[in-house]
Design brief:
12 helices; Aspartate Aminotransferase, domain 2; three-stranded antiparallel β-sheet; Aspartate Aminotransferase, domain 1; alpha/beta; seven-stranded mixed β-sheet
Length: about 400
């Protein structure tokens, strides 16, 4: 949409740069979902032909998703989203293999859907190793291998971090896990549809993904379970999802997820190139114009749309509030904890001090953002950070020590 040039001080319409939290539903996704709300609304488990047509379309969607991951259709199970998929993968394996071992390996930078699930299992007698990461958020494959024990049954390591965007060496980690007879799960909620994934080539046994990160609907996701993997059910009830996951089939959500996956596949290269261009322009502008700023995450092995900063001497919460007043949507970290004043566990894990990590801001662009919007955001950031620093005794002390 064409906008007239902004004058300095003008307020722009809503600028959404929190696409790691959720994305806008694509028009094509909305249209297909509308059809399954209004016309093809049958319960896919019904015995009549009206339901049979719906059931057939769900299986077509399953095949498309499987093909996108290099999987078989009977290895794809539809869920309510990433959190359920993570819970099912970890609890399901732990319960199924507890007679074999009680040790799980994960990292300190996982999404809370993984971390809290592991903490729950610790209260039930399981042992969990939380691996350190380096200053970029990368797992060391040697440290991963060293953590494996005879009683290790599962490793769960995210594909790409939701806060700093770092992409992990999943293929290498999966290979190491398999060499030691350990099942390998990855939370790919941020990576699915943004990074090319082949579950067989990358040695993945279980994979979690969610629709609302790729311009699909909220409330639907998948768990890929490699054929032959023993895993217990998380949700009991009916015989849906081949008896593995009870609950009335979310037909509209599944069809929306299918279309979102199809669009992601078709547009991945073009979208990533556009997002990288915008992200790099944003990062360059921020680092050039705002001193005492830290850019977090790996410089190259990262998601195309992710930019995570720490602005020294300020509080991220105040920054977010003031950006919101200028119609800019960003995040101080994970969407699930953005209402909390707790310091990001990811930023602490990469070695930042509490007082620095408190000044964090995550901006995640989409291909629909513009350079004009980036300019507006950077202008706003420069003004807001300067104002907050002028009110900060920490900044005043710093300048005094620097002789400025």
């Amino acid at each position: 949409m064409h906008r007239p040039p902004l004058k300095k001080g003008d307020k722009m319409d809503l600028i959404y740069m929190d696409n790691a939290a959720t994305t806008k539903v694509a028009p094509e996704v909305y249209e297909v979902m509308k059809e399954y709300f209004e016309e093809e609304y049958a319960n896919a488990s019904g015995a009549y032909s009206f339901a049979g047509k719906t059931s057939a379309r769900v299986e077509e969607a399953r095949r498309l998703v499987a093909d996108f991951l290099g999987a078989k259709s009977n290895e794809i199970f539809f869920t309510s989203g990433g959190s359920e998929s993570d819970n099912w993968a970890i609890k399901g394996i732990a319960d199924a293999l507890k007679s074999k071992g009680n040790h799980i390996i994960t990292t300190k930078i996982e999404h809370h859907a993984v971390l809290h699930t592991c903490e729950y299992l610790e209260s039930r007698g399981f042992e969990v190793t939380y691996l350190d990461v380096d200053e970029y958020g990368l797992v060391d494959p040697k440290a991963f291998e060293a953590a494996i024990r005879p009683e290790t049954i599962l490793a769960s390591i995210m594909f790409a971090n939701n806060e700093i965007g770092t992409i992990e060496p999943i293929k290498e980690l999966g290979k190491i896990a398999h060499e030691h007879g350990v099942i390998f799960h990855t939370d790919a909620v941020q990576a699915y549809g943004h990074v090319k994934i082949d579950v067989n080539e990358m040695n993945i046994d279980l994979l979690s993904a969610s629709g609302h990160k790729i311009n699909g609907p909220k409330g639907v996701g998948i768990l890929y379970i490699k054929k032959g993997i023993r895993i217990n059910n998380l949700i009991h009830g009916g015989s849906q999802e081949r008896g593995k996951r009870a609950g009335t089939t979310n037909t509209a959500g599944i069809m929306g997820f299918c279309v979102a996956t199809k669009l992601a596949k078709e547009r991945m290269d073009e979208r990533n190139a556009r997002e990288e261009e915008l992200r790099d322009y944003l990062v360059k502008s921020v680092l050039e114009r705002i001193p005492y700023t830290i850019y977090n995450g790996h410089p190259t092995s990262r998601l195309s749309n992710n930019a995570n900063f720490c602005f020294r001497f300020i509080e991220g919460e105040s920054l977010l509030i003031m950006l919101d007043q200028k119609n800019v949507c960003g995040s101080s970290g994970s969407a699930c904890t953005s209402g909390s004043l707790d310091t990001s566990h990811v930023l602490l894990a990469i070695g930042l001090k509490h007082e620095i990590a408190h000044g964090s801001l995550r901006l995640t662009v989409s291909a629909e953002n513009t350079k004009e919007e980036v300019d507006y955001v950077v202008d706003a950031l420069e003004t807001i950070v300067g104002r907050l620093r002028n009110m900060s005794p920490l900044y005043e002390d710093f300048l005094r020590k620097e002789g400025k």
